[in-house]
Amino acid sequence: MPRSGNRPGAKARLAVQPVRRQNQDMREPRSDRMRRRQDGAAGGREAILDLLTIGPIEVEGQLFEASNATLYCKIKHGGKSAACVYKPISGERPLWDFPRGSLAGREVAAYLISEAAGWDVVPPTVYRDGPFGPGMCQLWIDADLTVDLVALARRSDHAGLRDMAVFDAVVNNADRKIGHLLPTARGHLYGCDHGVCFSEDYKLRTVLWQWRGRPLPGRAIEALDRLRAALDGRELAAELGQRLAAAEISATKGRVDFLLKHRVHPYPSEEWPAVPWPPV
Fold first, then answer.
1. Among candidates 69, 37, 216, which has minimal Cα distance to 138?
2. What predicted TM-score, i.e. pTM, was given to this entire model?
3. pLDDT tens digits, 166-199
4. Are 73 and 57 in contact (CB under 8 A)?
5. How many domains does the chain have?
């Protein structure tokens, strides 16, 4: 696994310097807090990734209800600007079932998987250094606040939502809450908070079980075929190798193979809670 690279005292500085948006209290309800981020603020996808990677990060706020340190930031470079989320490793809460300092890398790996398959369910995400040390930096999405997220999560006729369910099965998402759904005004659906993915053990916990046991649609099979081919390629293998253990990458390939073989949405585990708590 990659080393966390924590700088001495980074946690302490983070703990004593809570920040907010100027003239705005960031202690907003979870249901509002997670409906966020807007794609396209900085141009095309490559331009956005470049901006997230090299632009200076200016911290403007902290999302206090997040389990790990989650900072709202602005980033500017070369005449382009965008809002972003910065999650430094130094602010990660240790978990018993995931290696210390690995959550930021898993968020980046989730983005790489989404892009390789063509799902586009994860906002542009990079791994980089920042004001509180290395971590992940992700484009902020301003979600459509008129959408009823509970009703959305229950739909079975939403193509983007079904894509996300297949994506979650591939990355073994242990925490797909309703509040992690980010529908945009243009009709696209993103998801966020993918730090607890890619475990070798089957830990899929999600609110999206409405397709369990049902045949995968043709678009899902095509996406899985693209992803499987990419996983055998050098480029994706090298990128994932920087963020995940070799056994975790192998387990991801195994899940893709399993889905392609049986061509049905998976069932919940009998040994692991099926739905995260709280579900919202």
1. 37
2. 0.86
3. 999 999 999 999 999 999 999 999 999 999 999 9
4. yes
5. 1
